[in-house]
Every structure is written in structure tokens, then in C-alpha cells.
UniProtKB/TrEMBL annotation:
It comes from the Bacteria. Pfam families: PLDc_N. It is found in: Cell membrane. This is Cardiolipin synthase N-terminal domain-containing protein. It is a multi-pass membrane protein. GO terms for cellular component: plasma membrane.
Length: 85
């Protein structure tokens, strides 16, 4: 927020064209990471047997759409690890 004539004025949203190249690269990079996490988590969920998933599969399916947190949570906490010696 900025002040104009002693009053707070919203600067509004920046347009894509107004962003710096580094900012654009950062946004595109984070979007690519988020989409990759979503695809990997959903593929793992949909190809896993029910016994290998902690909790309900349908709940994890929807939770995976929560930005970053959902897919990472499923990949870390939602899968049962096989015990191999």
C-alpha cells in the first residue's frame, strides 16, 4: 500500500508484463514444481493398493490439490513403506 494525499491507496495487481524476468522465472519454476508434485502424488496414489495407503484414498486424492502441502504430505505420511531387509 502507498499513500497519496495522506490516504492509503492500494497499488493493485501487477500485470505479467510488468514483472521482472527473475520474478517470472521464479513463478514458472514454482508452478512446475507444484504440478510435478501433484502428478507424482496422484500417480502414486492411484496405482497403490488400498493396504499401502494410510487413510482413505479418496481423501488423499482431494488433499493432493492443496498447493504443495497436500502432495508432500501424501508422499511423506500417506504411504506405508514396505519392510525390506
Amino acid at each position: 500500500m502507498a499513500t497519496q494525499n495522506g490516504e492509503w491507496v492500494s497499488q493493485g495487481k501487477k500485470r505479467w508484463q510488468a514483472l521482472s524476468e527473475n520474478t517470472k522465472l521464479g513463478i514458472v519454476g514454482l508452478a512446475a514444481v507444484e504440478i510435478t508434485l501433484l502428478v507424482v502424488a496422484q500417480a502414486e496414489l492411484l496405482t497403490s493398493d488400498r493396504e499401502r495407503v494410510r487413510g482413505k484414498k479418496w481423501l488423499w486424492f482431494f488433499a493432493n490439490f492443496v498447493n504443495f502441502f497436500g502432495p508432500i504430505s501424501f508422499l511423506v505420511f500417506g504411504r506405508r513403506r514396505s519392510r525390506q531387509a
